[in-house]
Amino acid sequence: MLTINNLSLSIQKVPILNDIELSIEKGQTVGLIGRNGAGKTTLMRAIMGLIELESGEIFYKDTALHQSKAFKHALLGIGYLPEDRRLVPHFTVEENIMVPLWANKNADLKRVKWVYELMPEIGRFADRRALTLSGGQQKLVALARALVVGSDLLLLDEPFEGVAPALAQRLMEVISSLKQEHLSVLISESDYSHSEKVVDKVYSIERGSISTFNHDAVVA
Known about the structure:
Elements: E1 2-11, E2 14-24, E3 29-33, H1 40-47, E4 55-60, E5 63-64, E6 78-81, H2 93-103, H3 110-118, H4 120-124, H5 135-149, E7 153-157, H6 165-177, E8 184-189, E9 201-206, E10 209-213, H7 215-219
Parallel strand pairs: 3-8, 3-9, 6-7, 7-8
Antiparallel strand pairs: 1-2, 1-4, 4-5, 9-10
Pfam family, one: ABC_tran
InterPro entries: AAA+_ATPase, ABC_transporter-like_ATP-bd, ABC_transporter-like_CS, BCAA_Transport_ATP-bd_LivF, P-loop_NTPase
Keywords: Amino-acid transport, ATP-binding, Nucleotide-binding, Transport
């Protein structure tokens, strides 16, 4: 589903990612664990085409993402939840969810209906402006927005950060249920406290370098 080979990049001449190797199979939920500043968000942004690579390749199915424009990613079935949510404050919840569909001139509302069924609470405040929501509620909306286009692959950057425990648990319930949809999911976290029971494989990132560790041993 997603394969990254020898990815390296720098920001303002400062090396951030070094020879990253990562793969996600169809239907897998994969963890990306590292402290703040380790390179998690930079890697997510690189996959989404928001940062230019110095070297390496990113393949999604048969598409070379490193040669594709960022705005085309949603058309490929890739959804992205940024760490800072990136909602439009004065848009309603539903308008925020619809933004990627409008951008891609996609009038098919079946996916929106499915998201409301998956997260009924979203429907209950669909007419509220995003700026009136709590941080946790905004994360749910950002997840819903990612889901309307992320029919195959979801990139979730620190989805639980700054969220109250009850809403973090709700986010985890929704993410767990995605296994039934055979979605591939990459979740970044700083301390592995939420996703350890649902991930199939875990990558550890430290100072821009990545490694795998024995997830089964951690869960046991």
